[in-house]
Amino acid sequence: MMRGILYGVGLGPGAADLMTLRALDCLRKVDCIILPRKDEKSLSVSWHIARETVGPIPGQERLSLNFPMSRDPKVTSHAWNIAIKEIKDRIFAGKSVAFISLGDPFIYSSFIYLYEHAQKSWPEIEIKVIPGVSSITAAPIAAGIPIADGQERIAIIPAVYNKDDLRTIIRMFDTILLMKASSVMSEIIEILESEGLLDKSVYVASATMDKEQIVTDIRDIKGKRGMYFSMVVIAKKNHSGVLFGNGEKKE
Amino acid sequence: MMRGILYGVGLGPGAADLMTLRALDCLRKVDCIILPRKDEKSLSVSWHIARETVGPIPGQERLSLNFPMSRDPKVTSHAWNIAIKEIKDRIFAGKSVAFISLGDPFIYSSFIYLYEHAQKSWPEIEIKVIPGVSSITAAPIAAGIPIADGQERIAIIPAVYNKDDLRTIIRMFDTILLMKASSVMSEIIEILESEGLLDKSVYVASATMDKEQIVTDIRDIKGKRGMYFSMVVIAKKNHSGVLFGNGEKKE
């Protein structure tokens, strides 16, 4: 039986023109694009980004599949079983299938689970992953904060952590990105205040999208239910670097 | 006097088609592209990536400028003074100038220093930064290592550090990226061996470029003088995540 290719395609952080040439080319050529969405009632956020740029492709299938945001294994397993079957059917019928991810497919993306499943269960198929611009750099750029130069260290931390750990990490690193920060903003503010870093922290939500939001006094976020695609960027150092001879750099 | 715009343009990790649509559009429209190179004898690595895709643009200036890889402030300051003057002359004559960076302009890139200088010294000009695909995700993708899912933490560390720090960081994080690792490979191997992580570490150089190199037994690198665009990816966790209900994810 002929077998197709599974593509994981990074779409970039949100603005349509931050897609790569390779991603666009792939999305125009594959037999099927999987449009991940939360549930039947939701539109696919990632497809919303790519849709207009990709345009209509005669004969191409666009298949919406549900990936519920739940930590209940019954809920997620059920949805994933359906998704995996739909994708497998197509790949083993010789079709190429692209799974689209906001940002990069290998960083906090559902594609990672599909990739691991495919590697384990379908070792005979080819998998290609197309990297994308991640919010890890797009959000600091939106906020005008160079993420790291020279010898600076970067820590990227999902919102769930214990406070002592976060304190240690903040002290050891130059730039700290707190992902999905909205739900624990009060704790974050408390720690940053006690470390004297409130002035060096910026809240960024939906970077590069229409609804992009930059809040330079993060205390303004406290108590508000934030957006899902949000991040607190803590940049401790006053940048100066190579002009004064203490940096190393790439070209 | 009319003033132009300064662009910082991320070209992605090395493969020409990993440039974004926005980067390509910008490079085709600006009056001048700055081609950064190490010295008079070198070609611009970043221009080598973009050159063919951008193609010839009548009337566009392409200006090579030297950015020496030195930590001697006399050497770097001299080169930077020349570069800053050339760029300023054009911007204050109303021209748009694009400074190209491998990867992303805000992560370990020379553009950061130009950005900070421009912000401080030329507050009246407009600066636009176009993010790019960074080796931070492109290298793990090349090695087939999902960088982080669910609640995993990522640390990005330049090669210079003290050993105790690195040990602490390795214990606190799930995925650790050691940048520009080649020069300190013996130390890295020693630490990873004592932490039982040699099997979970991969050396990646020049990800997505023609000369891409993936070494799964990093002991093979020991003693060899490695490439500049190299990284050791340490991924501690055996990925499993959302299929078993312990992950959180973006769409």
Automatic annotation (TrEMBL), chains A, B:
It comes from the Bacteria. Pathway: Cofactor biosynthesis; adenosylcobalamin biosynthesis. PROSITE patterns: SUMT_1. GO terms for molecular function: precorrin-2 C20-methyltransferase activity. The keyword Glycoprotein does not apply. Pfam families: TP_methylase. One of its GO terms (biological process) is methylation. Keywords: Cobalamin biosynthesis, Methyltransferase, S-adenosyl-L-methionine, Transferase. Belongs to the precorrin methyltransferase family. This is Precorrin-2 C(20)-methyltransferase. The lineage of its organism: Bacteria, Pseudomonadati, Planctomycetota, Candidatus Brocadiia, Candidatus Brocadiales.
